[in-house]
């Protein structure tokens, strides 16, 4: 395998998965010119122009597939269990460095695109500038910047707080001025201590103002929804993606709503269910039990997380049956979920009933559609950017093979995973 620089790169392997859901292609090949995919097909059909300078990568019995697309991260997070109210007390400079570390970690694990769902001030925009300048490395960034919240609402410590339709419209314009690619809305409460997790935050008029304003500029909106009424409200407003999509009444009762699921499907709204952040909470409590005595509160939390996970799996399957398109986003590095483990989230989609190939699609082409970057990435097709993952094994047969990363290409360039600058 050569390391020299060439105008063309030819990548070959035993199988190729294009990210669109079809069967793997035997003895697949990709021809890259610069950062762009020129041709995809079999070894026999994909050839460089005669006389061209070609750098060849033959990966033998491995698998080529698109770089993974994590549609839900929090780059400011540390993953050490601290809540966001504590995280925001750290200086912006520290959070920017943490974001850089997280971005590099996710890229080196095979994730070539991330959508950050809410960060403090300019931290993620400064990271993007540093990546563009070559100061550090990271995946493609789809950024909201500061999330939109009500006064005291979920993520309000990071966010731009707005009241009333006029303030909501003005806030969208301000975030776009700051560099936002889309708008993240906290449509219900969450882990923020001053919020009400199962209650809606913005009213429908405010939500419509946000969605109308962002759509006017050709961008999209993503909503955190930890209750059923929150989902109904954002559906009324014209949301593009719902995060968590928890079927939960205001009193905390989990109650699946088929009518809401059918409406999500009918409106073509994507759902990012976020399984594994709860699993990491379970693991954290179990680790504590190995060296310490669990309190009554610990036992209650453990039971609650386990129950929530089982209900999420059930609701995930039922929403899929209703025709809802599920996309894959980790929610790392929130709570105890460190970055670099996106493959665990994909595995949870298989546990929830997806085939390995369906789960791959949820984490590549469908996730790219949710992020509104599917014109550039998410599948291996002519004309798209050459974001490519090479793994050992066949992930269409065993989804765990996605973790056996051999190489990563970003914009056609082989990523040097030994570079920690």
Task: Explain what you see.
The chain is of the alpha/beta class. The protein is built from twelve helices and 18 strands. The chain has helices at residues 84-87, 92-108, 123-132, 165-178, 204-216, 228-237, 258-266, 276-291, 296-321, 342-351, 356-362, 365-370; strands spanning 8-16, 25-33, 36-42, 54-58, 63-66, 68-73, 111-116, 140-143, 148-149, 160-161, 182-186, 220-224, 241-243, 270-272, 325-326, 388-391, 405-410, 413-414. Strands 1, 2, 3, 4, 5, 16, 17 and 18 form an eight-stranded mixed beta sheet that branches. Strand 13 (241-243), helix 7 and strand 14 form a beta-alpha-beta unit. It is globular, with a radius of gyration of 21 Å. The two termini are 25 Å apart. 51% of the residues are buried.
Approximate helicity band: 25-40%
| H/I helix tally | 12
β-strand amount: 15-25%
Shape: globular
What is the mean predicted local confidence, pLDDT? 96
